[in-house]
Amino acid sequence: MNVLDQPLVLPNGAIIPNRLAKSAMSEALGTYDNRVTEYLPRLYARWSAGGTGLLITGNVMVDRRALGEPNNVVLEDERDFLMLQRWANAASSHGAACWVQLNHPGKQAPKGLNKETVAPSAIGFDAHLQKFFQVPRAMTEEEIAEVIHRFAQSALLVKKAGFAGVQIHGAHGYLVSQFLSPKHNQRQDRYGGSAENRRRFVLDVYQAIRNAVGPEFPVGIKLNSADFQKGGFAESESLEVIKALADAGIDLFEISGGTYETPVMSVGTGKEGSVKESTRRREAYFLEFAEKVRAVVATPLMVTGGFRSRAGMEEALNQGALDLIGLARPLAVDPDYSRIIREGRQPAHLPPARVRTGIAMIDRLALMEVAWYTRQLHRLAHGKRARPEHPLLAFVAIAVSSGWKTWNTRRMRA
Q: Among 3.20.20.70, 2.60.200.40, 1.10.10.10, 1.10.150.130, what is the CATH number of 3-354?
């Protein structure tokens, strides 16, 4: 059996049928009032038929008052339980395991979307993003406890609906990532200050979820290797968080890196707009860090970002640096990409190396690439093919529609 086709058995006994995984991409296919729509089962049925072993959903929020973008799905109660079941059934219709990614944006929420923005500390974004995000209010300990409870309750809903697992979003500058970062978390209570205190939030979230879903239901996390910001979350701290979560019994680590301020998850770990030569040779952006993780924990690892060839994927798996190949952008362009790769064929449709408008101020924003790929996901969800278009057109279209959707979201909650 080819290494890509080998099943992966997690420590708790759950089985992922092959070594290709769809990493989370925010679909923004919910309603204005954040309910599940028919487009999500349709989209995930296409990915399930495409031969990917593990499908991880995009941002599913745990609090309707804290959206990361318009049209997020929010899981607070059982109002959408039948649609959740349809989504889970569609995603597993061809044998894939489907996990729901649970998230809270913290301060990483567009201006005007939520009534207020909260975060570990009242610290805003760097200058080039201040026009998009407001300065947050620091959370109280009571609010922190409520958010932890919300993660657990949402995870229990996911399990009841028939999904195969959950993933905590602890990367890319969202709330969990903010708590871990000494740049963004400057609290002086039990959730801030020392590295041990800053990782208390993610450990409490994990333990609350585990208590809710039990030992046999898979719980994973997407975690930054680093956020690549001066005074921010570094590799040494990431390794300590990983060891603590492994000791607590987490089932899978997905390694990524960067934030919307330093979007290396899109371009690799070299200087902005470049890719390190070692990364170019080995394809994956965060493989070197994964090898450091492998040296200290035995928990299964998934690495997302940069993989483009069957040979590169096989080499990484055969060397034991990771257990799952994370794919995102290729599956936004071709939902059959995994099956084509597993069959040893050359994909006819590949995503561009970088999505660029030619306008430097826009191109350095991770939000621009998100806009382009969101357009492709929406086409797939409507039963169409992806249609790569000029990035500036996609950015303008998303920017215009985002304002309208933000207004409607606020109106629905008035």
A: 3.20.20.70
